[in-house]
Specification:
The chain is of the alpha/beta class. It has helices spanning about 15-30, 75-85, 95-105, 120-125, 130-145, 155-160, 185-195, 220-225, 240-245, 260-270, 285-290, 305, 320-335, 335-350, 355-375, and strands at about 1-5, 35-40, 45, 50-55, 60, 65-70, 85-90, 110-115, 150, 170, 200-205, 230-235, 250-255, 270-275, 295-300, 315.
């Protein structure tokens, strides 16, 4: 099988879409699937032996300036045609994704589209609510052109189908339990680093893109309410200067991007994972935190309710309810036995969410679509 992937973001940028794309490419390598990646802007030229075609020129994307927009030109079409994929997969079709839609039709190839970034919800969050209706219309038009659609959580699947996108499958999110697992090696040193030299404090952890919609500033209320707590923020993004101002006189550490063993050590070093985000399509970092046995206090967003059984393996609060978020954190601090029990339940809950099984399911969908497309004489 040969697969062409288009994504609006790729390495060296780090975000959920990039992480999932790399995991999928790793799986392709293990399964003997050939692939090529197209993405706007300057990027790495290859990943795990697969060619990455950088589409230039490009411009920053509104509401998401770290991502770049570009229209694939004749060179991209020529490379795609020479590669001759069996199927084309477009993540978040927008600008370049529109061009890939037409390239798929020109080359007579089946087209899969996956929904990752909820621009309609972001428009409302950024007080651009007047854009919601046209954004829904544009997305509906694009996704209806696909031969198959997938979304990252049951909640989003229902939402897209309610907006008449067409039948939408579930491309679940998983966690690499070989990477994200309870460990002791390096944890003490990482805790010292993340807690600003005060490892005796209760260490709260946030991991993710540092953007306004993540609402990390709400954790300041928890720090102010509960003495001897410390927040570690892992990740980076356009909202970091604002957050540095919010937390400048509070117990907080900005650790920037971490990956590999350092990221796992950071999860293992913390006491509680706190996630107040207003917008998510799944919440991959929640699954990672649970996989190391870290109790999670999260807002009710994306696929989080599909992972957390409230009061058993974590706590869920309604978006913007900082009082409830703080109360859940306080409860876990006051009851260390409950915190440990909840962490063990969290670890158990995600053991079956392996990327191997999830991406095998996607490959099965690819093969089914290729065969159906061929049988219909397209």
């Amino acid at each position: 099988m040969k697969v062409a992937i288009y994504t609006e973001t790729f390495l060296p940028k780090l975000d959920g879409v990039v992480t999932v794309t790399c995991l999928l490419l790793d799986h392709f390598r293990e399964r003997g699937v050939d692939a090529i990646v197209f993405s706007p802007g300057p990027h790495v030229e290859s990943y795990n032996g697969f060619r990455v075609v950088s589409i230039t020129p490009s411009v920053p994307m509104p509401m998401y300036p770290e991502a770049r927009l570009s229209i694939p030109l004749r060179r991209s079409y020529r490379i795609l045609k020479e590669f001759d994929p069996d199927i084309i997969h477009v993540a978040n079709p927008w600008c370049g994704g529109i061009a890939m839609l037409y390239y798929a039709k020109m080359l007579d190839k089946p087209l899969v589209m996956s929904f990752h970034t909820h621009l309609m919800a972001m428009a409302k969050f950024y007080k651009l609510g007047f854009l919601q209706r046209p954004l829904w219309g544009i997305h509906r038009f694009l996704y209806q052109k696909a031969d198959y659609r997938v979304a990252t959580s049951k909640r989003v699947v229902r939402e897209l189908e309610d907006h008449r996108f067409g039948e939408t499958g579930l491309w679940r999110r998983g966690v690499d339990t070989d990477v994200f697992a309870p460990r002791m090696n390096g944890t003490a040193a990482m805790r010292e680093r993340l807690a600003g030299g005060h490892p005796e404090r209760t260490l709260l952890l946030f991991v993710g893109r540092v953007a306004a919609e993540k609402q990390i500033e709400q954790i300041a209320h928890t720090l102010d309410t509960i003495p001897e707590t410390h927040l570690a923020i892992i990740g980076d993004g356009p909202f970091r200067p604002n957050l540095e101002e919010v937390f400048k006189d509070r117990n907080a550490t900005f650790a920037g991007y971490l990956s590999g063993d350092d990221l796992t050590a950071a999860y293992c070093a913390a006491d509680i994972f706190v996630f107040p985000s207003a917008i998510e399509t799944f919440g991959l970092v929640v699954a990672e935190a649970m996989a190391v046995g870290l109790p999670v206090v999260s807002s009710r967003v994306g696929g989080v309710p599909e992972l957390i059984e409230h009061g058993h393996n974590g706590y869920i609060f309604e978006v913007n309810d900082t009082e409830q978020m703080t109360a859940h954190v306080q409860d876990l601090i006051d009851n260390p036995d409950k915190r440990q029990q909840m962490g063990r339940a969290a670890l158990q809950a995600v053991q079956g969410l392996t990327w191997e099984a999830i991406n095998d399911d996607l490959l099965t969908e690819y093969q089914s679509l290729i065969e159906k497309y061929s049988a219909n004489g397209k």
